[in-house]
Amino acid sequence: MRVALVLSAAVAGSLAFAACASVPDNARLTVLVAEDGAPLEPDYAIYKAHVNEILERQCGTLDCHGQAGRAYRLYGRTGLRIFNPDGSLGSGLNPTTEEEKRYNFQSLVTLQPEEMRRVMARNGTDPETLIFLRKPLKVERHKGGQVIAFNGPAYKCITGWLRVPIGGALDADSEKACKSALEVR
Amino acid sequence: MQRPPRSTQLLGAAVLVTGLFGGCSLDPVQNGSIKALGDEDPNIPRGEHHRQGQPCVLCHSTTGPASDKPFAVAGTVFVGPFSGRGAGNTWVRVVDAKGTQVCKTTNCKGNFFFRDEDFTPNGQFQEKPGPSFPLLVSIQRSLPGNPVGANRAMSSHIGREGSCSACHKPPPDSKSIASFDTPGVVRLYDTEASGDQALPPGNEACPPAEPEQLVPCPENPP
Fold first, then answer.
1. Which among A68, A83, A143 has the least Cβ separation from residue B160?
2. So what's the ipTM on this one?
3. Fewer CB atoms inside 10 A, N or C side of chain A?
4. What separation in angstroms does the CA of A79 have from each of A72, A94, A161, B45, B85?
5. pTM for the whole thing?
6. Tens digit of each residue's pLDDT (9 = 90 or more) over A33-75
7. Which of A118, A129, A114, A109 is nearest to A44 (CA)?
């Protein structure tokens, strides 16, 4: 009897709260901009040229983030390919396509969009607030263990990218780090 | 007769449930995947030659039905992509993140396995037994008159998965190795023709009547 009463109260409470919720507003959004009003967006051109291949290799194997069921999903030559029933793209066969790189970029920048912009607004300082760095650095639990090292080439490349506003250029040290990250097997 | 107190009833129920389910995995994904593998081939006894090309570590893990024989890394090497002919006497080399290098030889079905202790031979585990992921893997099969023979190395690393065939599944089309989510089975050659030319199919029984004489890896002491 008592259980039934508690259950009824819980159902009634849930209904009352649901009725009070505001109607979602599609026009409402949060925009973070730099002090001069410039948009704070991670640069796709730098991502495509330098960061994507590192993440593909370090994170995108078929047993990790190269799986369709992963929230942060990566496509690439040596892992999962965009679904193509005609078999024109094969795992381990064709180079990563522009479309796959774009999807990888979108998958990454939508993990914590606001936090990523905050990091960019801080000129890339304290990037470890981003889960996509916290996990591979093993600052927090990561089933794949530690995949990149603090201040290692991959870390320097990625954090260098986060310092660059849209349309900017990667600094020479970061560019060098990006290259050496790909030399390590 | 007086009813036992409520705490005793709960304890009894807990013991009963533990007794019923303690011996098997409660992971529905693992159980479903094992069930999907189907029954054993009646012509192959349960052992090192069985279940060629299947994900070994699914069962050979601490939570699987073969938990008394857990594997760290295991799989099957085939001669070509489609025929299902195992590549025996192939050396499988694994290097883990700490630089430990190990090598095993496949049996006549192409099957091989590594245990945790293979990666920590002195039994002195720094953190936990077994390989430190990620791993790099390569295969090599010497050929008559050609000691180097056929060589292949994975272009990416293994992040965490112990079963080769968890990723290296047979492609859905039996004429093309191109698939969006698998690079195909682990194989020495990309075509059946080149595999048959280098390693012509024989008539040897597998599993053999006598214990197999495998060719040890050159780096392993006899």
1. A143
2. 0.81
3. N
4. 14, 11, 24, 35, 25
5. 0.82
6. 777 777 778 899 999 999 999 999 999 999 999 998 888 999 9
7. A109
